[in-house]
Protein 1
Amino acid sequence: MKAAACRFALLAHPGSRRALGFSAACAKEGFPEPRLIAWEDWLSPAFDRAAALAGIDALRIETPAENLAAERALLLRGASASRKEGSLFLPEHECPALPPDEGELRYQRQWYLGWRTVLEELGEISRTTGIRMMNAPAEIASLFDKQATREILQRDGVPLPPSSGICSSFEDLLATMQSTGWSRVFLKPCHGSSATGVMAIARSSKGAWQVVSSARLVGSRIRNSKQLRRLTDESEIRSTVDAVCGQRALLEKWFPKATWKGKAFDLRVVVIAGKAAHVAMRTSSFPITNLHLRNQRGGIAELIGSLGEPAWRKAMHVAEKAAASFPGCHYCGVDLMLGPGGKTHAVAEVNAFGDLLHRELWDGMNPWEAELRTWPSLSC
């Protein structure tokens, strides 16, 4: 059967950029219109999944985030497991009434545990029906846990910043910095995305603190914004670190990033079918470079010209090696850091849904088109 005859189902939020972009790519590349299944429907106990997937050859899973109904359903799924392991959780009877709050970091571990059960079910559906997954559910689950991702990458020899593992509190952070001699570290929520709750932390030899983060403490709650800010008050930093650690966080040594025109930068590399394809250069006056935080894109052609082709190919090889650690993912986004002069590398993160680079083209294709063009015909 030709790849172009492959019938996709798409688990996504209707009307989202991801759903619209993939549907448009299917039309352009000659695939049948994908059958859109809303996450809100899929997560309903009454939903007929067998009927929704009837006649489907392959399934593309998009993120269920940024939807209140999906958040409530996933928290409900994860409540029991979260309670058993003693992490912060919302009781089952309160999940259906969870109020909307787009800015709060809430119950991340519980959300992840619920999300993992859904992915396990999707994996079982693939095994029993033969429906192929563009990205394997088990690998998506690993990629939503930064500690698990790190262990897989480390096993495969992918360059990473040094890490002390899970950080439990401000006191744990302080003890680690003192014992390792690290004066600058990154604290990353294990189940966050888009730099949510990430803290870039520096402490001088005299004990002065400086933190950059989009997270802020409001009462006992952590809220996230789209604007980075600096914290210097130790009391506020202590409380914020404790709140972030309360939802499970990974501590890494600060990797010094290369600079471009006076700003630090890193690369989001979309790897498709094992090959580095679309690349976005993210520059910032701050140590956190995510574009939605009012940071700027840099010029890739200029960067390649400055680094030289051999150095660029080496960097792309590192991104491809990171993606190869997740062979069940047809595509993923690798956040690649280059050291000063571009001579060293470290992978900051691998994102199962990291292909939302609709402005970047590769061989004339956007990411969705490239993913379909390289989808193996034998898969359907």
Protein 2
Amino acid sequence: MPAVVNINTEEVVAIRDPFENLFRDFFGPYYQRRQPNTQYSLGSGVVIDEEGYVLTNFHVVGRARRVWVTLHDGRVFEADRVVVNSSLDVALVKIRAKGEEKFVSIPFADDDDLLLGETVLALGNPFGLGGSVSKGILSSKTRRPATEGRTMDVQDWLQTDAAINPGNSGGPLVNLKGELIGISVAVLSEAQGIGFAIPIKRVSEKLAEMFSPETLDGMWFGAVVRAGRARLAVTAVQAGSPAERAGLRDGDVIVQVNGVAPRGFIQFINVLRAAKDRQPVALTVQRGRDRKTMNVRLTAESTVFNAKLIQQKTGLGIQELTARLAQGMGLGGISGLLISEVEARSPAAAAELKHGMIITAAAGEPVSDVVAFAKLLNQRKPGDKLRMELVVQIQRGAFIQLREAVADVVIR
């Protein structure tokens, strides 16, 4: 319970997201009783690292301008959003600690340590009123409820009959060892006596993706390290990345960073990020019975994943469509990448892409910056097809019409 917190926010922003109905149904009447520019208690969260990192739901903090965290003992701290992910409904916030203060954190359960029928507890700190505990059993590990008419990016929800009300949303679902097995989320207002949670396996995977040097600082490390338990296992290494060049391999277990055993995943990533002047970081790994030490030097993604790589792969010259540029072209409200050049006899030319078209998405993912698009292309092999979604400008006399289009470009 000391790791469970209340999340309250100020100046809630009206946005459209997958949780609009959930937000309105559960919190609408509560908001109507509050005055503007006041604090709103939206849910719960759980501390996962002693430095004050808190896991919660995206729909709890995703629309807030300012966030406060109330601890189990009643102390209140302002917090900063670090990373959020709307598709999985998870967010990570950081308490603004005073001095060197440490916080009580919760241990993670093993990914698949789940038994149907086992007793589970849903913990929370609803509306800042104090700790809340409800008991139930794990009744399913494979539920896939839809929100806003679509299935979210959660392969297998945990379902329990432990009561999970909106105030507990974002709080931990734990086993009887007090280990975190899921992040609670209320998604079906019509359901009676049913609660859902995002399994810790999916939370750990998304945390490893979100809390990375690439996402946070635009620095290329190139390895995925499992978040959660203290064992820092490498689960993937990108070809040609700084991690691969240093000798890191899939399956390695990182036991020391710069000669010191890291406390956990969060600290490990922060040590990578804090390397002064991007000096090499010494990683000691356990590989079977052997222990090896290697030096990895992070590289700015913009020096690798840039317009030059895009041109090499597709024959496209690309320019980021800034707000000012879009306004000047009469494209206000559209985000994407402007095609500034098409190389003759290139894959882009074969796909009939033209100067002035706007690439808005690729492989179903919105694209708005050169680095993200280049990284997407780099994941494809020569000969692979990449579907691009476009906005095309068509001149009709003095008027310009905008049409949507798609094109399949073969990567070279």
Protein 3
Amino acid sequence: MGGLYGVASGSLFFGESMFSLQSNASKIATIALARQLQRWGYRLTDCQIPSEHLASLGAQEITRADFQDMLLRYGHSGGKNGPWTMEPDILEC
């Protein structure tokens, strides 16, 4: 019903696009992805363009200097190797 896609490098994830056929479906997909990335030890999800929609999910802007530092520190290490399979309890409260 909705989702998002992007590119991972090291322990950083760069969101490219969100889509939905049902209202708020992309929000649910974003929350599920964020929880899964946390479990895998990812350090940053880059949303690229700030919006009220992303802010409602907890997104925060960082400075260019902080972003560049994260690229250097985490862009080439860590991350998930192999298939990206969601854990079944990822959306349980």
Protein 4
Amino acid sequence: MRQRLRAFFSRGGDLTFALVLVVAFFLVFMVILILSFPKGVGIDTRREPEAQRSAPPPPQAGTRPESWESTVARLTWVQRNVKAKPADSIVWTPASAGLSLGEQDAVQTFADSGASIAFDRNQTISLGENALIVIRRFEREPALGAQRASVVLLRGAVEGSVAGSSRGASTVEVVAGHAATSISSAGGGTTRFRVAAGTDEASVVAVTRGRAEVKVGNRSIAVGSGQSLTIRSNGSVSGPSSLAPPPVLETPADGATVFSGALPANIGFVWKPVGEDASYRIEIARNASFKEPLLDRPVAEASFGVPDLPAGSYAWRVRSIRKGAEGRPSEIRTFDVATDRDPPALHVQFPVGRQRAGVLSLHGETDPGARVFVGKSSCAVAADGTFEAQVALSRGVQIVVVQAVDVLGNVAYASRMIAAR
């Protein structure tokens, strides 16, 4: 009995020791996990120390503040696929117009998408497709009427405007690559700008109206109206240089109507080139505000064809691009696409009675500009729409078919059964 008790306690001590080792290893493993994977802070690594942040902690994205004072910015317009991420989250969620944004919140757009962000009525920026920004901060000085906003552009491009007032200056800072661009306006004027990040491994700042100050390292460079500045990935600077002038639009003419028929309308957009070193960006929208463009594309040549535009009213404009910098847009032209499914007129003078085998001359008339086919062969059509076709008749009875096809693809037919001896 004594030996059995001694063996039991011996085994119990071994089990206790084993349990202690397991718990110890588990605790060590948890400590290693905590040290290796700290709590994330989102994609922005440019967060300022808490002591330097003058604004109170912002609300998370998606909250509804009672006034502008309780938020940094707001999404005012969203097109297609746009997502937002609060500062203290790693999850991106679909964004909609009216969404409130706080400091360190992020917004990104995807292909054929866009968004507009307002800090207040005088400071707005718009994101093109495939863009990513982080809101840094927004500061107010109510006594002076001054406002300062700052964003980090990580990908894509932003366009914006800053309007001043008699009370004080408004400023927007865009940090992209090696440069921090400060755009301000005072005294009621408005500054319009565009900043592109990572274009051919360089950032490009363009000012179409007003003035901007670009800081690159210890340098401060002024960019005036109609100028651009290129900041390369190694920190070197090119410019300021003049922006390419806006193109002169040619077709479609302003107020023109383009018809589509049995075949979809392939509308050709043409403008005068501004130089061999220029490319272009064409925008087509349902209205002249261009808030929701149907097409926004870079174009290498001074023309572009768009098929399958449904019936409706449209507006279009073009910008010139030189060395990655976009200039002012051209004039805005409007046009209509209308549906025309009516076949062209077709009148053929078929012979009466039995004919002799051989060559038969057919005469007829159709709409000017239409094409005429007799069987599988085409025939010439005069400017006034008249035509003459030669038909080979063999002995017996045969069917002669004539087709007229207008420029919209609408077809008219005429046929006759002719007997030849």
